[in-house]
Amino acid sequence: MALTANSSIGDWLADPAGGELIRGLLAQSGASADSLTPVLGLPLQQLVVMSQGAMPQSVVDDLVRAANGGVIPEDAAPQGWTEQVTPGRFAGKTVIVTGAASGIGKATASRIAREGGRVIACDIAADKLDALSAELPGIVTVAGDLTQQDAIDRVVAAAGDRIDGLANVAGINDDFSPAGETPDAVWDRVIAINLTAPFKLMRAVLPLMEAAGRGSVLNVSSEAGLRGNASGNAYTASKHGIIGVTKSAAFMYGPKGIRVNSVAPGGVATGIPMPPHMSEYGSGRLAPFQQAIPTVATAEHLAASITFLLSDDAVNINGAILASDGGWSVQ
């Protein structure tokens, strides 16, 4: 079978010619094939996303040509997991998605729109929202900083009188610092974006859901919300916090017909950059545990988990924290 951009990284490494090409590419940056162990099940194409701009599409195209005698063959049947859209699952529903301009948020907004939902796509990156709007005609975009009340007010106004769902996806990384090193600026920004903003947006939409007697909220937590050795102090606190917010709201509003759940991702190949200055001690302390990640997911993998809990398919699920982490949380 011909190797293509959609062939898994594992298949490339297992192929004599493909393996030599991948190892040669890695050697140029001083890396080895061992560094790809968590992503063996992902398609080669995902390296473009994971590289955070360091690897252009042309590199993947050149690898495919080199493995196939100078041509790019047509893909055969899809390999591995493929997204299965459920037509009409969100038909007639208005759903707010934050962090919608990239990564998990973009994949979530895209899937909801393709499943018939009216999407209010929010992000601080106005230019990326414009690009998303071009990809998905019909979505409503709201650019703004959700740590500011005026941005939350504009999101709710754009949604209108009916809000069926809220996916709080937006978030940022911290600098892996332990508590004794965490600067005020890192703590304040991470808590504001990862915890306070989703709480305030949830607080804003709950009265509308309560009046309608129905609604679904999905807050994205993290593997760092389940353990203490997945990230730094501020990020870990923010993700533990959003789980607490989720469980409290699920308890309070479940009797009113509103479900509140959370997805806790593990490693995800979104290409979202880390802060420029990382804690040396924190990075070193976390490294062995992060290297134990069994697999790295794509944004579309997470969107599948998120849209399930957000949709009516999860009608009997409230207050759940779904670890969508490839099994990392059971280690």
Instruction: Report how far apart the termini are.
Output: 35 Å
Strand-and-helix sequence, N→C? Answer: HHHHEHEHEHEHEHEHHE
Rg estimate, integer Å = 20 Å
Q: Quick check: average pLDDT?
A: 93
Number of DSSP strands? Answer: 7
Number of domains: 2
CATH class of the largest domain: Alpha Beta
Account of the 3D structure:
By secondary structure, the chain is of the alpha/beta class. It has two domains: 9-67, no CATH class; 94-330, NAD(P)-binding Rossmann-like Domain (Rossmann fold), CATH 3.40.50. The protein has helices at residues 9-14, 16-28, 46-50, 57-67, 103-114, 126-135, 149-159, 184-212, 233-253, 280-290, 299-310; strands at residues 94-98, 118-123, 140-143, 165-168, 215-220, 258-265, 321-324. The protein has a seven-stranded parallel beta sheet, with helices on both faces. α5 (103-114) links the parallel β1 and β2 (118-123). α7 packs parallel to α8. The two termini are 35 Å apart. The model has no long low-confidence stretch (mean pLDDT 93).
Write the layout of secondary structure elements.
Elements: H1 9-14, H2 16-28, H3 46-50, H4 57-67, E1 94-98, H5 103-114, E2 118-123, H6 126-135, E3 140-143, H7 149-159, E4 165-168, H8 184-212, E5 215-220, H9 233-253, E6 258-265, H10 280-290, H11 299-310, E7 321-324
Parallel strand pairs: 1-2, 1-4, 2-3, 4-5, 5-6, 6-7
Helix pairs in contact: 2-4, 5-11, 7-8, 8-9
Offer a quick outline of the entry.
The chain has 331 residues and is of the alpha/beta class. It is built from 11 helices and 7 strands. The protein has helices at residues 9-14, 16-28, 46-50, 57-67, 103-114, 126-135, 149-159, 184-212, 233-253, 280-290, 299-310, and strands at residues 94-98, 118-123, 140-143, 165-168, 215-220, 258-265, 321-324.
